[in-house]
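User: tokens in, sequence out, please.
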């Protein structure tokens, strides 16, 4: 069987940071999405990657109106080649999950370009808003 991820790989793997805060993964706010299935698929891919893909969940990352948010962090090699974290928004269907998995299987940020359909879902991380502005 052919490994779904290229080898060799740098020590630090490509990492998916899956938001599961107040809105992302919330079935009452996004009832048409099987959020657990999405997390299970991403988790299974990480488990089957032989250490080439890692996954973690996080609390709210900020852009709730673009849920579900998945941040794709480059591997050490991808970062060395100029890759930076890419924020994917509106990841609420199987197609989005397919695209994310295809991209990380081909190397992720810095190694390969995202599928064209996934590129349309790239969003900007919100900058932290100062709690209080000086006048
Ligand atoms: S819950 Fe995911 S961005 Fe807020």
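Assistant: Sequence out:
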């Amino acid at each position: 069987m052919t490994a779904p991820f290229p080898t060799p790989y740098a020590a630090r793997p490509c990492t998916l940071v899956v938001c599961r805060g107040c809105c992302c993964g919330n079935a009452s706010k996004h009832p048409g999405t099987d959020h657990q299935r999405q997390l299970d698929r991403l988790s299974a891919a990480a488990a089957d990657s032989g250490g080439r893909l890692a996954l973690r969940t996080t609390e709210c990352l900020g852009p709730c109106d673009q849920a579900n948010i998945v941040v794709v962090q480059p591997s050490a090699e991808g970062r060395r080649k100029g890759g930076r974290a890419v924020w994917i928004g509106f990841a609420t269907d199987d197609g989005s999950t397919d695209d994310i998995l295809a991209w990380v299987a081909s190397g992720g940020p810095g190694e390969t370009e995202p599928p064209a359909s996934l590129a349309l879902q790239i969003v900007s991380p919100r900058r932290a808003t100062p709690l209080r502005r000086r006048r």
